[in-house]
Design brief:
Chain lengths: 253, 341
């Protein structure tokens, strides 16, 4: 990285400047400015309705910004187009798992590996390179045996794993996971944790939303706490979690 | 059997496979028996009608089955192709008929056919750019609008289409000195085009592009998050599909040698969607099977001894309707399909 702007330096990979999103009269995200470090894992926490998922939707272009700017690796964007996010180096998973249901597990992975341009894609068949990548990813998330099943026939935990695998298949720097641990059995949970740790150790920026404070303490290095669409606090995990406002927001005191 | 009892899903899959096999055998043996019974001349007619409907249903399946855009306006592109062929190749002396006169251009068939295809594609680009804003139930409504508008253009732009009088003496294909004037020769030509359409469709749906289409069908927004400009993909398949329908239209006009707007009414479009659903969404073979079933039903009911001739037309729609209801109740993925709308 050589072309990082002077103000943010190389430390932060993803920043927002006064971004906001309104649903009717409700400000889901309200003039939010955050900065997420390149190194390590960052978790986003906050009570229900604090704007965590909306933030992820804004960062991934799934929802349009009402105002403000997203800065991805030094590139400022007032309009984040969903189809451009992989090129900017971002991919994501969804809170309610969103797979391509009526196609196979195999095709769910293949579809994010292949050529993005229209006419080359028409002439392109499944190249050996893609097949190897897909196999590696499916083995990584433990879904290789299930490759010929339809995504809709999988169990909830398997669907979560496949969605994480699909995000892994997009070779980018920033991964946004919206509640990756919700509703998982312990064994699956450990597997998802291991996958995410391996990604971090591989030098990727991993950002996740969670309600489970034990996992947040265990997994993340940095913490962002939201409340009512605003930043409550941010920083190192233990520092942030011990602040009185955070405790108050969580306990409702 | 014991294993099947232990694993009901496997049992389901097995019977599912069998239903497909039985559907295939039934329709094909029905067709063969019918042709043997009625003789060669009838078989040729049946085959030609089938091939034209098959091109239409395969092309519509690209849009409805593979991309999830339920269009009931497909007949409009069929009509555009047919009228392009008719206007360019018709060689009648309309001045003597004391009805609307249109210029007689007298082009040969093979010069007009590419125009049929290109014109359908061109209109599809313009229509598709607008349609891309819509999805699901609204998409059905706007495509309905397209079917209505195209029918009314055919009916009312009389300086071009002669309206309800129709266009006749549409030319048959000719290569060098050799004309496809025999019905068998024309059937061969239509089958060649059907094979080409199937080949192109197969190539598209098995490519990376085809896989993306199915992903867009399942979750358009998720597909865009993974880097696909879904509007471009939807427009591309829409235009390709429309061009195939234009091709079918050109062939149809030349085969009947007379067309009027009644061949391009909304009902035909809905029957076409029914054929695609009947055969199975997202399967090329299923569309062939659906078209075959439809044609056999249409022609076959003419020979039911207890059915008076004047009721045949209505009766076949009733039967098709009942067939569709039964299918949706017991097998919503169609005869050989996998995917449900």
């Amino acid at each position: 990285m050589t072309a990082a702007p002077a103000n943010s330096g190389d430390y932060y990979i993803l920043e927002t400047e006064e971004i906001s999103k309104h649903f009717g009269a409700v400000a889901a995200v309200d003039g939010l400015s955050i900065a997420i470090p390149r190194q390590g894992m960052t978790s986003i926490v906050g009570p229900n309705g604090s704007g965590k998922s909306t933030l992820v939707n804004l960062l991934s272009g799934t929802l349009p910004l009402d105002g403000g700017m997203v800065i991805i690796d030094g590139v400022g964007l007032k309009l984040v187009k969903a189809y451009e996010t992989p090129a900017h180096g971002i991919t994501r998973t969804f809170q309610e798992v969103r797979l391509f249901n009526q196609i196979t597990v195999w095709d769910n992975i293949m579809v994010v590996l292949t050529n993005r341009s229209l006419f080359p894609a028409m002439l392109e068949r499944a190249k050996p390179r893609y097949r190897e990548q897909a196999q590696r990813i499916l083995e990584n998330v433990g879904m290789w045996e299930k490759r010929d099943s339809l995504a809709m026939d999988l169990s909830y935990g398997q669907r979560k794993l496949l969605e994480i695998g699909r995000a892994l298949a997009v070779d980018v720097n920033i991964y946004l996971f919206d509640e990756p641990f919700a509703g998982l059995f312990p064994q699956m949970l450990e597997r998802v944790k291991d996958i995410m740790k391996a990604m971090r150790d591989d030098g990727r920026t991993v950002i996740f939303i969670s309600h489970n404070m034990d996992i947040v303490r265990e997994m993340s290095d940095h913490l962002i706490v939201l409340d009512s669409g605003k930043l409550l606090t941010a920083g190192e995990v233990e520092d942030a979690l011990n602040q009185e406002e955070v405790i108050a927001a969580y306990l409702g005191a | 059997m014991r294993e099947l009892a232990r694993n009901p899903r496997a049992a389901l899959r097995l019977t599912g496979g069998n239903i497909e096999l039985w559907a295939n055998l039934l329709v094909i043996s029905w067709a063969v028996a019918f042709m043997l019974w009625q003789g060669v001349g009838f078989a040729i007619t049946l085959g030609t009608v089938f091939a034209i409907w098959a091109i239409l249903s395969v092309s519509l399946n690209l849009v409805v089955g593979f991309s999830g855009l339920l269009s009931i306006g497909h007949i409009g592109f069929f009509g555009i192709g047919a009228y392009a062929m008719a206007i360019l190749t018709s060689d009648a002396s309309y001045e003597q008929l004391r009805t609307e006169a249109i210029p007689t251009l007298g082009w040969p068939f093979f010069a007009a056919l590419p125009v049929s295809v290109a014109l359908a594609g061109l209109v599809a680009i313009l229509v598709g750019i607008v349609f891309n804003r819509f999805r699901d139930d609204i998409y059905v409504l706007v495509s309905f609008g397209f079917a209505i508008i195209s029918f009314n253009v055919f009916l009312n732009w009389r300086a071009l289409t002669r309206g309800a009088f129709g266009i006749h003496e549409i030319s048959r294909p000719e290569i060098g000195g050799w004309a496809f004037d025999g019905d068998l020769a024309f059937l061969a030509l239509v089958v060649v085009f059907l094979a080409a359409v199937m080949l192109v469709s197969w190539f598209i749906v098995t490519s990376s592009f085809g896989r993306v289409l199915t992903a867009i069908r399942e979750d358009e927004q998720a597909a865009s998050v993974f880097g696909y400009r879904v509007t471009h993909y939807k427009l591309a398949i829409w235009v390709i599909s429309a061009m195939m329908a234009g091709l079918a239209g050109g062939l149809f006009a030349s085969w009947t040698s007379f067309i009027d707007p009644n061949s391009f009414i909304l009902l035909e479009s809905i029957l076409l969607v029914s054929i695609v659903i009947l055969g199975g969404l997202a399967t090329i073979w299923g569309s062939l099977l659906g078209a075959m079933t439809f044609v056999l039903l249409e022609e076959g009911m003419r020979f039911l001894p207890f059915l008076p001739n004047e009721y045949v037309g209505q009766a076949r729609q009733v039967v098709l309707g009942i067939l569709l209801v039964l299918l949706m109740l017991f097998r919503p993925q169609g005869l050989v399909g996998r995917f449900k709308l």
